[in-house]
Amino acid sequence: MRKSIFLFTILCIALTAKADLYAQDHENVEQVGIIFIQWQMIWDVAIADDLAYVATGGTGLHIVDVSDLENSEVIGYWYDNPGIARDVMVSGDYAYIADGSGGLRVISVANPEHPEEVGYYYTPGIAYGVAVSDDYVYIADHESGLRVISVADPEHPEEMGYYDTFGWARGVTVYGDYAYVANGGSGLRVISVADPEHPEEVGYCGTPESDRGVTVSGDYAYVVGGCGLRVISVANPEHPEEVGYYDTPGSASDVALSDDDLIYVADYTNVGIYRFIDPAKVDDSFILHPSPRLSQPLQHINDNFLSIARSVTGIIATV
């Protein structure tokens, strides 16, 4: 399941857009909206069907029913984690949590109203990021690099391989035969996991500051951190190269993509919404440039649902 950042909050979502948001340094990326949320200590959100699985730091995992956006509610929670729940992925009947010093926690969510821990594995470092592919969980384990853990038996996770990324592995995603690691101050590392028991690095791309989150779609990796949002071509995984960036106003920690290719960036105090303009696929006469301001106001429908009216070179669209 692809990790996503969902457009909802149990308390209130205020959506604003100001002219100065478009004044940031950028190349081939434009901002189309921004969301301010009032929840605190939300480290990550994963969506499966009509449920949102929220990693809430020291208070573990909260499961929210979002089938009715006007009446979203917490239906289950698990808070016996020994560490800090920083990242969560859901696959099948299980949620996999990167729990900081608590390593990997495996939570059965077969009954989402009563989630329960069924297995765990203490990694040697601090578990910051988690990705799932087939029967393997990949942990970005800070100074201990990338850890590959078999969850073929979820009650007894077992480490099968690892790769020392020689940095601070903070975020990880798996796409095809590769794991992409946001590796702190040493940029994006591309690691072949064709043989999960023997992962090996095949390429890397340096970035200006510490990287914290990464997601991949098609030929592009989207990396966030102290340097904002960086777009990196991974068409050739052995020679990734940066093709776009946006200096976000906050301190970016995570990133996700929507089905319509909008980029959502968790940016400390807000969620920024961006779009990458691929110069290789867009005719120069059709390149969309950011408008200095939205031509129509952003519409707040209710406390749990919003629509974004945006204008780019005269084109009005709704997200």
Using brief descriptors, characterize the structure shown:
319 residues; mainly beta; Methylamine Dehydrogenase, Chain H; five-stranded antiparallel sheet; 30 strands; 0% helix; disordered N terminus
How does this structure look, described?
- With 319 residues, this protein is mainly β.
- It is built from no helices and 30 strands.
- The chain folds into two domains: 1-39 and 168-319, no CATH class; 41-164, Methylamine Dehydrogenase, Chain H (7 Propeller), CATH 2.130.10.
- 0% of the residues lie in helices and 48% in strands.
- The strands form eight sheets. The chain has a five-stranded antiparallel β-sheet, with no helix packed on it.
Task: List the topology elements.
Layout: E1 13-15, E2 26-27, E3 29-37, E4 44-48, E5 51-55, E6 61-65, E7 73-78, E8 87-91, E9 94-98, E10 104-108, E11 116-121, E12 129-133, E13 136-140, E14 146-150, E15 158-163, E16 171-175, E17 178-182, E18 188-192, E19 200-205, E20 211-217, E21 220-225, E22 228-233, E23 241-246, E24 254-257, E25 262-266, E26 271-276, E27 299-302, E28 305-307, E29 309-312, E30 315-318
